[in-house]
Amino acid sequence: METELITINDYCLKYAVEPSFIGALEDSGLIVLTVIEENKYIHYKQLVEMERFIHFHYELQINIEGIEAIMGLLEKIKRLQHEIEDLKNQVHLREPGH
Prior knowledge:
- By secondary structure, the protein is mainly α.
- It has a single domain (2-94), classed as Multidrug-efflux Transporter Regulator, Chain: A, Domain 2 (Orthogonal Bundle), CATH 1.10.1660.
- The protein has four helices and three strands.
- The chain is elongated and about 60 Å long.
């Protein structure tokens, strides 16, 4: 399990990120941290999302609330794309000869 986790301190040092930014992401529910013996860790499965959040915040100057809004919109787009695919499949199945 430990090989799948990186400490917040190590992550912040490696990527030049403020620990308070990580805390704000956790507080907003954008990431979930693992706590082991009073130390907080980021799971490797979340690193791609973390890179996205870092880009939004540090390079594009988007605050946590803005990141929440962006992620909500991206999730909505994903749901709508799935819905469109489902509807296309339904139409395709109803076409004559299928």
